[in-house]
Amino acid sequence: MVISEKILYSMGADVKQYDPTEIIFSEGDSPSFYYQIITGEVKLNNYNEDGKETIQNLLTDGESIGESLLFMDKPYPINAVTTTSCNILKLPKNLFMDLLKQYPDTCFDMNTHLSQNLYYKQLMAQTMSSQNPAVKLKTLMDYLKSFHNEDKPFSFKIPLTRQQMASLTGLCVETVIRSLKKMERDNMVQIENRKILY
Amino acid sequence: MKTISCMKIDEKILTSFGAEIKNYKPKEFIFQEGDMALHYYQTIAGTVKINHYSEDGKEFIHNILGENQSFGDSPLFLEKEYPMNAVALSPCAIYKLPKGRFFQILEDHPETSIELNNCFSHRLHYQMLMMQNMASQNPMMRIKGLMDYLKSFQEKIDPFTFHIQLTRQQIADLTGLRVETIIRTLKKMEKENALRFNNKQILY
Question: What domains, with CATH codes, occur in chain B?
Fold first, then answer.
């Protein structure tokens, strides 16, 4: 959990319910709320001029949505869309800023949280420039697995469809399918019933 | 030219917490990929490049920093090794402060912690925009994305008022494209009146 729900409620956060595929905010909107998921799943994405989707992140229980934009005077560069039914805590930006002043520990936790995001975004950027699809997929899977306690091989089920993996890495879905089969032969992943174990 | 970093801790505070000034020669490493993150760094003078080499030896530049900018700070929070190198591009003078004292500053001066959130957010914003550009197969989109980002910190928004202070090679390494592609695409952008050249300088 990024910020304790108790603290968020004490500062005046409200709970909002969303249906699947509902938009929380759109690219170009002005950021005016801190959002934190109580339950459910949310994806952050963009569409390029040809309509191709890039997924920037997939978020779940306890995670915050687009919080970095609250620290800047810029519009959201991404959309946030629910992929399941969601309960989300919503706190106005000015109260969120007061919260960080009143709770220096939370402010420090936010430093750590943003560092973590940045660390993996940088790793992804580094590999996005690589021409090798297996390298891109491995970075993505390492990233997802890093939030998982078990680090034995094949203990982690990748919670993404092939299409989502393609949209996260900028690859074509056919390339993802072909590379995963090759990675299976190289014993880097196991595939069971179409599910990817890493 | 202002690039991605934005953190600057007051020099008096840094000195009072025991920051040392270290000098680096051009091409000297300040830290290398795989080193444990143990210090906070802030430039005083000179230019620093943050980069990474892929398995096939291709360089990827994360950032180029000028005066009064921090770098290598986010891994301090994660107990991780640096995933990239920091190299001096010119003679540099840099503040170096041990991690423990840096955290002490954050505790004693909470406004620094808030400012650090601003700084990390700026970098994340850059990463989000670049990620979007990198997913594009169109080199012009990638180059335009980088230049729009750099220009977004300028007051003047008129066309051709912003001098891109990067070499063709640096633009290539920031966008993951080949330098030949950069040269060709920049010429094409000039023809389409998206930018102008003045003595090899790029005005955007």
Answer: 11-109 (2.60.120.10), 136-195 (1.10.10.10)
Chain A residues with CB under 8 Å of B117 CB are 71, 100, 107, 110-111, 114
The pTM of this model reads 0.79
Q: Name the residue among B160, B85, B77 with its Cα closest to residue B119.
A: B77
Task: Provide block-wise average pLDDT over 10 residues at a time, chain A (198 residues).
Answer: 94 97 96 97 84 82 93 89 96 96 94 88 75 84 75 87 84 92 94 92
Give SS3 for A49. coil
User: Does B118 contact A100 at a Cβ distance shorter than 8 Å?
Assistant: no
Domains and CATH numbers, chain A: 5-103 (2.60.120.10), 130-197 (1.10.10.10)
Compute φ and ψ for A115, nearest 5 degrees.
-60, -45
> Which residue of chain B comes nearest to A51, CA vs CA?
B136
Q: Tokens 């297996």 appear where?
A: A134
CB-based burial of residue B39 (10 Å sphere; 0-12 exposed, 13-18 middle, 19+ buried)? buried
Amino acid (one-letter) located at A60: T
CA distance B125 to chain A (A): 7
Q: What is the 3-state secondary structure (H, E, C) of A13-29?
A: CEEEEECCCCEEECCCC
Q: Which of A113, A118, A146 to mutate to test the interface with B (most CBs of B within 10 A)?
A: A118
Contact A48 B58 (CB under 8 A): no
The span from the CA of B5 to the CA of A185, in Å, is 42
